[in-house]
TrEMBL record:
GO MF annotation list: acyltransferase activity
Organism superkingdom: Bacteria
Protein name (record): Acyltransferase
Domain SGNH: 405-610
Originating organism: Bradyrhizobium ontarionense
């Protein structure tokens, strides 16, 4: 096979991959797991790059300089153009802290390490993905690191006799896949972002390129292989849920599907080529489409919020496509056709502009003078230090901690009414408010991130063990009141969650305590300080930005515990919202939440003051009567 053989089916795969990713990011049904498009790209890259290197090495024409020159022509011109435009957009649209973050992301792109940067930023309270306009470049970082390392590896591997060469590639693929499966369970961010756990997908493509799988001679077998591959890819786009560990074993399906299409390679008739021409065109534009789709939705969300209506999504697709076509015809294609010295000088100049712009944005702290004093004060909440307010690491445990990490002071009883607050971060954000609203009470705190107070499929073993300690704790500590609060989502409506929650409440009340269940708190379609500043800067309405499905969950929970003895239900949505319009700021001008739903200290005070007033159990100043022994 010639290294330059054109494969229209691969352009169709590229089109499928980029459309899946864009549909997923733009919330277009039914691509709920459209992120698998990145896996498709990795297999394709492994195949194409290895095919070129292997063919040139066999012909004795391989050159590192020529290889990297081709890669630079292919990747850097459009990437640098997008980078400069994104930095300009960030300096106009984003808040100062977000502008500095965008500049740091740009520096990571320029040093081929954006995947490492985004891996290092993963954490329970880290900034939402949508606020990072260069987040999508993590996959470029993986590929660029592969381009640096793989040619060196091939010098040694391709020098071996064929059996050893294949065994070496299989060993790399198997070791990386095993690491991927293990890391997905214990270090999911590393498995997702870093090259070692992604190398198997690139190596899988490499095995196809060196004909590790015997070619299919029969046209019907080739058609069958390609058809099964496309079916697997189609199923993959809607198979996985947000709780599916990924990449891990789940990534096998899209990778095997891609491999089957590449391996099959049926001869395409003129009719098929005509029918697939639009897909082939999208495949040719796929790189530019991928580069521009995320900054477009990121900046649009910063101004107007996430796309919800069909017209919103069509507008985003139109903007993305327009920018991508301009990038393809004005940047990508000319850079490939121009003499290398011309392209190299242009790249150097564009990279220098991006580097200088990023440095200035960081040095200037994101140009804060663009904002009024009130807006700057509101923007300061984006970097809100919640750790002391939530008692992070002591009474509010991180997902990698266990129940035994709770400090003794968190569960110490006192002389007054004893209240035990139990739940996840949406319980921890009430701690400050309870202390202010009930100073005469002793507040015991046992909270853990990502651990709602009921059992559900997919939760961590640490969370299961944490929740399992609650009934025994209620017997041992005998608090007067146990307050259950959490990030209640639709998972609370599942039968297993209902049974778990009711059993937990029954165990607590049987031990003699009363229970107060606090319903879901308002959550918004983006960080609340962003919304409030967009309201003043861009005239965006502040109404209708609450995520409305929480009202359904709230009504369900209210009905579920309505007749449960010795149990109050308090609806935070009723206390803080009228329909989909909620209290956004406290009386002193602070935002209710510092991100999309976690209360500030001021927001906690406001919410808990209303909770106490609404709950007969909490509003009674005397110690509630306990069940007789």
């Amino acid at each position: 096979m010639s290294s330059t053989d054109y494969r229209p089916d691969i352009d169709c795969l590229r089109a499928f991959a980029v459309m899946s990713v864009i549909a997923f990011h733009y919330d277009v049904s039914p691509f709920r797991s459209g992120y698998i498009g990145v896996d498709v790209f990795f297999v394709i890259s492994g195949f194409l790059i290895t095919r070129i290197i292997h063919a040139e090495m066999l012909a004795g024409t391989f050159s590192f300089a020529a290889f990297y020159r081709r890669r630079a022509r292919r990747i850097l011109p459009a990437a640098f153009a997008m980078l400069c435009a994104t930095l300009l957009g960030a300096s106009v649209i984003l808040l100062p802290q977000e502008t500095v973050s965008a500049a740091q992301q740009a520096l990571a792109v320029l040093t081929f390490s954006s995947n490492i940067l985004f891996w290092s930023q993963q954490g329970y309270f880290d900034a939402a993905a949508i606020t990072k306009p260069l987040l999508h470049t993590w996959s470029l970082g993986v590929e660029e690191q592969y381009y640096v390392l793989f040619p060196v590896l091939t010098l040694a591997v391709f020098a071996l006799r064929r059996s050893l060469m294949l065994a070496s590639l299989v060993a790399v693929c198997a070791a990386s896949f095993l690491l991927c499966v293990i890391q997905t369970r214990i270090q999911p961010a590393a498995a997702f972002y870093l090259l070692p756990a992604r190398a198997w997908q690139l190596a899988f493509g490499a095995l196809l390129a060196v004909d590790a799988f015997p070619p299919l001679r029969n046209q019907w077998l080739r058609i069958a292989a390609a058809t099964l591959g496309w079916i697997a890819l189609g199923v993959s786009t809607n198979l996985f849920s947000p709780r599916t560990p990924y990449p891990g074993v789940a990534a096998l399906m899209p990778c095997l599907g891609t491999a089957a299409v590449i391996w099959g390679r049926p001869a395409l008739s003129r009719t098929v080529l005509t029918i697939t021409r639009p897909m082939i065109a999208i495949g040719l534009w796929s790189y530019s489409l991928y580069l521009w789709h995320w900054p477009v939705v990121s900046f649009a969300t910063a101004v107007w919020g996430p796309p919800i209506s069909v017209m919103d999504k069509l507008a985003l697709l139109g903007a993305c496509t327009t920018l991508a076509l301009a990038s393809f015809y004005l940047v990508e294609q000319p850079a490939r056709r121009a003499a290398w010295p011309v392209t190299a000088r242009t790249l150097a100049a564009t990279g220098a502009v991006a580097l200088s712009a990023a440095a200035i944005m960081i040095w200037s702290s994101g140009f804060p003078d663009r904002f009024s004093p009130q807006e700057r004060a509101m923007a300061d909440f984006i970097g809100y230090d919640h750790k002391n307010v939530y008692e992070n690491g002591s009474c509010f445990l991180n997902p990698d901690q266990t129940f035994d990490a709770l400090q003794p002071a968190c569960l110490a009883k006192g002389p007054g009414p004893n209240i035990l607050l139990w739940g996840d971060s949406h319980a921890a954000h009430l701690i400050h408010g309870f202390r202010r609203a009930l100073p005469q009470a002793t507040l015991m705190r046992a909270t853990m991130a990502q651990c709602t107070p009921y059992d559900e499929p997919g939760q961590s073993a640490a969370c299961t063990e944490f929740n399992g300690r609650l009934p025994g704790l209620a017997r041992d500590l005998a608090p007067d009141i146990v307050v259950l609060s959490g990030n209640w989502t639709r998972t609370a409506m599942a039968p297993v969650a209902q049974a778990s929650l009711l059993a937990t409440i029954e165990a607590i009340t049987e031990a003699g305590s009363r229970v107060v269940v606090i319903g879901p708190s308002p959550q918004f379609d983006r960080p609340l300080p962003d919304l409030l500043i967009a309201t003043s800067r861009f005239g965006v309405t502040s109404e209708g930005h609450m995520l409305t499905f929480f009202a359904e969950v709230d009504a369900f929970l209210r009905a579920l515990v309505k007749d449960v003895p010795r149990t109050d239900y308090v609806s935070l949505l009723t206390l803080l919202c009228t329909g989909s319009d909620c209290v956004l700021q406290t009386s002193d001008g602070a935002p209710l939440a510092w991100d999309d739903g976690h209360f500030t200290a001021q927001g906690s005070e406001l919410a808990v003051s209303r909770i106490v007033a609404a709950s007969p159990t909490l509003s009674t100043p005397a110690t509630p009567p306990r069940k007789s022994e």
